[in-house]
User: Fold these one by one.
Assistant:
Number 1:
Amino acid sequence: MGLRLFDFQCAKGHRFEEMVKAEVRETKCATCGKKAKRLMSAPRVSLEGISGDFPSAADKWVQRRESHMKKEKRNTERHGTYK
């Protein structure tokens, strides 16, 4: 697996970023040389501005809805209205 960028902080409070493998939890501080632990990073999330949905989820819903409406229209034209 490739390298990823993570945030680290040592006991003296030095914070830095380093490219490491995902399983690495500790590294050496770039400033003082002491042991530094990996910090919890905020997730990268992209939400749609108005509804707050994930854009891809909203797009999929719209596509499924349009497909369903087309099928419903074809069935109504072929078989009439169901009551």
Note: The chain has two domains: 4-38, 45-83.
Number 2:
Amino acid sequence: MITLSFMERIYESVISEHLAELRQMIFLSGPRQVGKTTTARQSARDHEYLTWDRQSDRRRFTRGPDEIASHLGLDTLQDKKTTLVFDELHKYRHWKSFLKGFFDVYGEKAGIIVTGSARLNVFRRGGDSLMGRYFLYRMHPVSLSELVRTKIAKAPVSPPAGISGSDFEQLLVFGGFPEPFLRASARFHNKWKRLRNEQLFREDMRDLTRIQDIGQVEVLAGLISGQTGQLMNFSSLSSDVRAAVGTVMRWFSALENLYFCFSVRPWYRNVPKALRKQPKVYLWDWSLVQDPGARLENFVASHLMKAVQFWTDTGLGEFGLFYLRDKEKREVDFLVVENSRPWFLVEVKSSGKRKLNPNLEYFQQKTGASHAFQLVMDMDYVDRDAFSEKKPVRVPALTLLSQLV
């Protein structure tokens, strides 16, 4: 069982490589307490750190780029590039124009890391885009693969690596947020969940959205937690929270933007009578899911979403995560797509006693996916590359998930 006081994250390699090779700013986005600030500062080594949450730094930000540059000595001759970490800057109303001005004037003198617990790319629809000036990296909770591998691979999947059953159980029970995972204490975990919930709804939701009915949004979040892995029915949710459908959809979007949950949409190309609209929803913190079967599915969904976003963000291609279901109620839990082409299917099962789901073969034929896996949670680790199999096959979760990110 892992009991380290500090754990290295794979994102440290990403940031170090970026700072060494690229001029663009790093946007490191992810949920509260996933380790963004610690990882950014650890990766940057010698650096200057400013945060919007500190009053003295806040005054400097509001006075503009030149004030920050003067404070950091960027207006004097230097023999090496300075690394800057700007934390929670998205809380500043004019953060986009600040960064644009700062980067355009001082970008050659400084490597810039911007961290935030709300989505730093939601502003793209605005007129003051920072496109071309940054690369976005989306930071996820700890995964099984990250327990044994923290260096960037040259290909999306890696060889399998053995992971102990106790580490797997610790991750499943306490979630992938570093502090509760490393402490592995039920009492601490309960207090941590309560505090994080208060921060999400009483601080982030209030500060970063215009939503007034925070209590109703909390009710919605509770309903979503109980419907993990199910198709979203916004009409039913609107009735339960006593709000208009459009309002509920807006609240749901805010919960996604604040990293409470994420949605997986249906894939319908080349699939007769496929569902086309309704998403399935999962939580960023799978430890909040009470139903054991739903938690296992959420656990796998989180690993797959982390993989496709990491592969995309690090330039290995354009990847996406979907599910498959048709009007005949044939369904497979997940489909991973690479550059708009189906790559592999995943059906989650808790027990190895379950027969191979015939829907895997059906949807593999319809989509042309290269691989089809029935991911079994209670099977022992097998030291063999799951991606060497072309036909539908049952594989241990410990094997397949260790090959991802």
Note: Residues 186-208 form the longest helix (23 residues).
Number 3:
Amino acid sequence: MIAAFNTLNIGFSLDSFPARQLLGCLLAICIAPSVQADADDTFNIYPAIGIQYDNNLFRQSSNAQSDSVQTSSLTLSLSKPYAQQRISLDVTLAEYHYAKNDYLDYQATNYNGAWNWALTHRLTGVLSATQTESQSSFVDYQVSGAKTGRNIARTNVYHLGAEWQVMGGWQAIGGFTNTQLANSTSFQQQSAYELNSWEVGGKYVWTSGSQVQLLYRDGDGQYKGRQLIGFDLIPAPFNPQNDTAFRQTEIEARLSVPLTGKSALSGLLSDQSREHEHFSQRDYDVVTGRLDYNWQATANLSLGAAVRREVAAYQDYSSSYYISDGINIQPAWQISTKVIMRGSYDWQRRQYKGALIEVPPEREDTLQSARLGLDWAPVRWATLSAAYQRDTRSSNKENFDFKSDMFNLNARLSF
């Protein structure tokens, strides 16, 4: 595998490759005792290391810069049932080290904890907390000069949900969610915020496994670190219109249908609106949705496919939000009991709306991502993975096109 990477002549030397760590994993696979993770274990440990080479790290249309990032992580997993209750916790400690742009180095602490509670067999719910830390994608975060563009985004989500089986297949559902986004540096397009929202609705479940759900969600949000500048100080359209608060509402319908023993269909349709306290120019009301199809064609072949429409806030002078229409295809082939080949293709079109200063044409981007990977599990408790990924963007605005080739090597152990 290493020799194959050498023949590609892709611009990085083995001096930057975590050879000692990968060699250690290979030796462990060969000589370690038969200690492995099991789905029924209360506690599991998953150490992993890897490297990713990217020939256009900052997603630039010209003067592309290549770099490689070494990753190491340790995941601790706990799952324990208590009568009708179950407590689970996954914590991952990760480090990222860049060979050239070492100012981008960072450490991340990610976790996902949940208490699936039950007061009676008819009244159940979940209390959960998650945290995700990662470098903001350079697809959204443009580099303007030397040593810029480092933004570690941390997202925390705390949720309390409950379901009450009223009668038969009818269920009442409700909950409360606190969502927080924090940035390590100023990121105007996707500013830090806190959103408190509650939800209420109903669900019906058929004996066949099909279910339909209708939900209403209402939330109040506060942008963090923003200073309100009124039109009395700077008139429109030159005012940046960076609001300090917003209200977000959603009406959401979900459908899940097991078509056969080998295929299933699920769908989501939502009307999402966001209204800002001071600047209505930033408001939006968009119908979004998603349709997923999963098919287990044979014991060794599977296919997942999806179409979607999404909306996201993206605030600067040229836009307030964008609408993304996309498709995704993910085939998988179980070549043998130890080898799996996975592929994916994602296409999306982004339309940027709500510009403060209209400069035709309205920005529109087309992004494509294709990935092909191979997972090899020589023993049950170890997996070696290799993948190639190609990302591109074409835009009707200058200096937004890019092409990027990425190569990944990873090793993961399970104890």
Note: The chain has a mean pLDDT of 90.
Number 4:
Amino acid sequence: MSRAMALVMCGLWAAPLFGGSPDPKDLAIPPGELSKARDLIRRLGSEVYREREEAQVELAKMGRMARPVLLEAASTDPDPEVRFRSSRLLPKAGADDLKARLDTFLADTESKYEHNLPGLKQFRKIVGSDKLARDLFVDIIKSPHNVELLQMLDKSSVEVGRAISDRRMGMYSLIQARNVGGRIQPAQPIPLQDIACLIFAETVIPTKEIPRNNMWSYVTGAQFITQQSSTSAINNNATLHSEAYKRILGQWMESREDVTDLNQLAYPVGQFLRGFKESVPLLRRIVTTEGVQGYIKGQALTYLVQQRKKEEYDFLRSLLTNDALVTTVFFGIAPNQAPMQHQCLLRDVALATLIDQTGQKMVDYGFSFPQGHIPNGQILGTYAFPTEEARAAAMVKFAFWRMKQSGKEPASATPAPKDAPGEAGPPPTKK
């Protein structure tokens, strides 16, 4: 971020705005100012050094009033001296222009006008334009780091992707305890508006456009939604910006498809975000996306069933052929002997859950359990099939159990497609 931008942003919040116009049309630059700026631009190419210096000082004083002329001169003027000096003046003029537009936006307390502010159009599309959305945006733009990130949303996908990656790492460094000169610097809390700005940007830009830092490739917005400021806004509607933040978070959850994100989201979605309507399709996406770690798939499936119970019957059936490895279960056999290892697959978790839901017993289906564990399909790592033959027999047994309950002959032990019509839930157990 440029020093000019930082100074202007600090000045913006140093004192409240009084008497500013809320209409962006009032920001139009008078023709006389543009004419003055063009005359000064010509003097930037003077053969007299003092005249060039004086013209540069006057243009700097003009601030945003000179910006359109400076932009043109920096890119098209044939004199390299003029192009160089104009480009040096542009950051300050641009910062002055942004401050004026922010002042105007803040004065428009009733949101009557359209404002040309970085990220505002996308923000309103995702969050809305009501008072709750506006208040959050106001707090977001109090940070020069957030303003800089929002400005990048109008750039190329490469530039905005890099800006998001850099912002992630800057925020991540703050939540880590660090050794600075032999002294431990504790982790710093991240304000809600900073988290909101980051995940908003991640929602706007496809994940594939955001480069990964080789050492910290796992760092995404998922690292910050469990921060205290975020969980407070999620769990307590009385928290400042709670409603507007949750609008962003819902859209962000809906757009998560990258494996790196999904590998980190099962726990927070299952624990903190289960009240969001987007949590159910997101948990299903974690379960079915290739490349997600097996244990994470099993964990997501467990949270999904805890939340939806028998409503996920058809989805569970669709997983009865999924051979993703969830975990390895160790069974002790005798003293001084290595424990036996058995694999628990995603299809095993789905079957165990279906057995629990339909009032049957896992032991009747050939599941084995480490000593001391009570059979429970919702506790990963506490059950497995001892052989592949036992697994196959269990699948056939469940298919015929379904046949017996429905009074129909099954075509095979293969489950129905996920979108197959018919069953909306498990058939009742006959007594």
Note: Residues 1-18, 409-424 have pLDDT under 50 and may be disordered.
